[in-house]
Amino acid sequence: MAHVAGARDFCSVLDIQFRRDVVVAQSVIQSTGLIRHERGTMRLCLLCFVALWCLAQNVSVAADNTESDLSETARLLAILLDSGRVAIGRNQTLINDPSNAQTAFTPELFATHLTGIFKERTGHNLNDLPNANVPTLAKGLLERLLIESKKTVESYQPVLNMKGLKYKGLIPATFSTETATRFQKWSGVYVKQTAPEHLLRNAGNKPDSFEAEHMKELSDASSSRNTESVFSKIEGGHSVRVLLPLFYEKACLSCHGEPKGERDISGYAKEGGKEGELGGAISVKIDMSKLAVR
């Protein structure tokens, strides 16, 4: 049954239904007399069933998620990641407090700030996702992104607890990059914080053509500064892309403001940005074919 177990892991999102159906399939195969004592053949039949079952579920998942549902899911994921960034940014004084050997900025405190910011921006309660009025697909993905966000803060606890250290390394950019990397590995959903190339600090976050094009539009002085508006696009009939602009808040300017060229707390040169100017974007891409596989 090792092969069947491996296939079950592959379809883990639908695990409960899968286990029930495999048991039923095995029972049917045995009861009909199609397979008697050939264990290898039994294993092969079960693997064939698993493959057909997964294919059927893939078709169902893709069909059940409309373009609008996928776009809304991508938008909510972008806002959740940015809400974590905002929570980190607003608590920099607490995070970098050198006077305490036991940090007050715990994963639990972070989660409280994050859920409050997200609810204020979207109206949705992350603590009650089963009853939230969001696409079904979004519920599981939002829950996982919240888990990964808390993991990032948890990973910094040893450093945050170092008394006398004035810079702990937990800033909005590192939070979003580390969280998005783990979430993407788990979900297959592309999530990235990016920025116009002249503001880019991490080469790994270089924008692609879609991101660069729309950030250029957003940088225009006449562009709307609505922090919740997004660019949404369907690519090739199978991928939904969303870009959430990030405009500098007052808290951002200690690292990204003036005087331009002066070193910030992390050692980078300040960009000379002003409150309300475009500083970057959260980019999300949901590939329906990869999502179906997941």
Topology diagram in text:
Layout: H1 2-10, H2 15-31, H3 39-64, H4 67-90, H5 92-95, H6 107-122, H7 136-155, H8 157-160, H9 172-187, E1 190-194, H10 209-219, E2 231-235, E3 239-247, H11 253-256, E4 278-287, H12 288-293
Antiparallel strand pairs: 1-4, 2-3, 3-4
Considering the chains and any ligands shown, give keywords for the structure.
294 residues, 2 domains, four-stranded antiparallel beta sheet, 12 helices, 53% helix, globular
How many beta-strand runs? 4
Evaluate the radius of gyration. Answer: 23 Å
Largest sheet: 4 strands, antiparallel
Molecular shape: globular
**Strand percent estimate:** 5-15%
Oligomeric category: single chain
* pLDDT averaged over residues: 80
**Unreliable segments (pLDDT under 50, ≥5 consecutive)?**
1-25, 31-37, 46-63
Strand order of the largest sheet: 1-4-3-2
**SSE pattern:** HHHHHHHHHEHEEHEH
Count of all domains:
2
Structural class assignment: alpha+beta
Report on this model:
This protein is of the alpha+beta class and 294 residues long. The protein folds into two domains: 2-64, no CATH class; 67-293, no CATH class. Helices cover 53% and strands 10% of the residues. It contains twelve helices and four strands, in the order H-H-H-H-H-H-H-H-H-E-H-E-E-H-E-H. It has helices spanning 2-10, 15-31, 39-64, 67-90, 92-95, 107-122, 136-155, 157-160, 172-187, 209-219, 253-256, 288-293; strands spanning 190-194, 231-235, 239-247, 278-287. It has a four-stranded antiparallel beta sheet with strand order 1-4-3-2, with helices on both faces. Strand 2 and strand 3 form a beta hairpin. The longest helix is centred in the N-terminal third of the chain and has 26 residues, at 39-64. The radius of gyration is 23 Å and the shape is globular. Mean pLDDT is 80; it is low at 1-25, 31-37 and 46-63.
